């Protein structure tokens, strides 16, 4: 690679494109709060967190103090209230200001760890786990994926056997976000027959004998997010840690799939918009052959196509979120919105690195981090291939 001039990491580069249409004044204010919080509490520290491999526990308290941790969670269980669109407005602000994928995953793991408890759990479980998470005092995670079962949730083999007033759990989980720092794991276990109808959710606290983080996983991206492999060896937990009813776990998990996939779609177009803004600024500042890069028609065409794809992904994602808030069934649309947004993220990040040239290949360039982070999005929350097939069945295109 040819030598390139050194430039400061462009983490504080000015945002040149922002989207405001579709937001009420209240949601615009929420988005601005997320932008300002990022500039104050995230931008000065993010590079260190990426190198360290996790975010400090105190960051949850700062989010809670700012009123940003419990957005979208009902007030009656300790949240800030609001709908999925409120979450969208907040997350759009975070991503536009330069959050990494790992930071988003680590800071908001409760978005997948506690909804089932908040909706179906006992008052004791809500008071013990949900409220402390939303105040920033605890960190939870969700344990579904196993070495032999990822997108195939119905295929999990970790088993819980009733023994008097306890369940005894044996099995393993992998790729579990926030499990290294976590205080508990909402664990999907098999309590009944094979398939979806034999799955339950049980809360397993950290420190329970036999429950260990067998190793922390070293990843391509999402570096600020601690990700672990978990081992359950004769782990005994009280039957009161069962979330809702036995053998209803798959149904509980499935109810959270739509919001999780919209969340990942938001990450997708958020990464893409950040890459667009960083790249547009770079192309205005960088000169080659005696003129700025942006003076070349091919460069302008690429930037415009990047903008188009971001705008389309955003519109589709927010339309599906709005329909979800209105009570419509949008399972297929959520799958397709996720695919649209994450495909946009992968393509735009690739173009961003290309237009940055050699600088885009260096760790000191922010677009390099986004390039690595977005690669997980077509895999996480259900692989694109699996979700496309699910959408095909729901849309009536299968035999």
Automatic annotation (TrEMBL):
GO molecular function terms listed in the Swiss-Prot or TrEMBL record: acyl-CoA dehydrogenase activity; flavin adenine dinucleotide binding
Cofactor(s) listed in the protein's UniProt record: FAD
Domain Acyl-CoA oxidase/dehydrogenase middle, first and last residues per copy: 142-235
Gene3D superfamilies (UniProt xref): Acyl-CoA dehydrogenase/oxidase, N-terminal domain, Butyryl-CoA Dehydrogenase, subunit A, domain 2, Butyryl-CoA Dehydrogenase, subunit A, domain 3
Keywords: FAD, Flavoprotein, Oxidoreductase
Domain Acyl-CoA dehydrogenase/oxidase N-terminal: from-to ranges: 24-137
Pfam families: Acyl-CoA_dh_1, Acyl-CoA_dh_M, Acyl-CoA_dh_N
Residue span, Acyl-CoA dehydrogenase/oxidase C-terminal domain: 247-393
Family, similarity comment: Belongs to the acyl-CoA dehydrogenase family.
Name of the protein: Acyl-CoA dehydrogenase
């Amino acid at each position: 690679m040819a030598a390139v001039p050194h430039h400061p990491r462009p983490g504080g580069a000015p945002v040149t494109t922002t989207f405001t249409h579709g937001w009420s004044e209240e949601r615009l204010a929420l988005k601005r709060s997320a932008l300002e919080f990022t500039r104050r509490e995230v931008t000065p520290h993010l590079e260190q967190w990426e190198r360290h491999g996790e975010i400090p526990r105190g960051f949850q308290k700062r989010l809670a103090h700012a009123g940003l941790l419990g957005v979208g969670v009902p007030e009656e269980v300790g949240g800030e209230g609001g709908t999925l669109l409120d979450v969208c407005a907040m997350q759009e602000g975070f991503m536009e200001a330069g959050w990494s994928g790992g930071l988003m995953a680590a800071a908001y793991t409760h978005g997948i760890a506690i909804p089932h408890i908040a909706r179906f759990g006992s008052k004791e479980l809500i008071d013990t786990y949900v409220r402390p998470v939303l105040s920033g005092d605890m960190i939870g995670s969700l344990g579904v994926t196993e070495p032999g079962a990822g997108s195939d949730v119905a295929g999990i083999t970790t088993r819980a056997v009733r023994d008097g007033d306890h369940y005894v759990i044996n099995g393993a989980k992998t790729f579990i976000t926030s499990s290294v720092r976590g205080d508990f794991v909402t664990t999907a276990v098999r309590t009944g027959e094979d398939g979806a109808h034999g799955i339950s959710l049980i809360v397993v606290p950290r420190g329970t004998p036999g429950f260990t983080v067998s190793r922390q996983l070293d990843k391509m991206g999402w570096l600020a997010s601690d990700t672990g492999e978990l081992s359950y060896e004769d782990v005994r937990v009280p039957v009161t840690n069962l979330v809702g009813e036995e053998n209803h776990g798959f149904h509980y998990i499935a109810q959270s799939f739509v919001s999780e996939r919209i969340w990942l779609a938001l990450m997708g177009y958020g990464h893409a918009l950040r890459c667009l803004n960083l790249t547009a600024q770079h192309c205005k500042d960088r000169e080659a052959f005696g003129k700025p890069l942006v003076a070349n028609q091919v460069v302008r065409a690429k930037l415009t196509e990047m903008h188009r794809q971001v705008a389309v992904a955003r519109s589709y994602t927010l339309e599906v979120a709005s329909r979800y808030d209105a009570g419509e069934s949008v399972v297929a649309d959520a799958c397709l919105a996720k695919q649209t947004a994450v495909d946009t993220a992968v393509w735009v990040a690739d173009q961003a690195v290309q237009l940055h040239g050699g600088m885009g290949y260096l760790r000191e360039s922010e677009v390099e981090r986004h390039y690595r982070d977005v690669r997980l999005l077509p895999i996480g929350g259900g692989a694109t291939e699996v979700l496309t097939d699910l959408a095909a069945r729901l849309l009536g295109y299968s035999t």
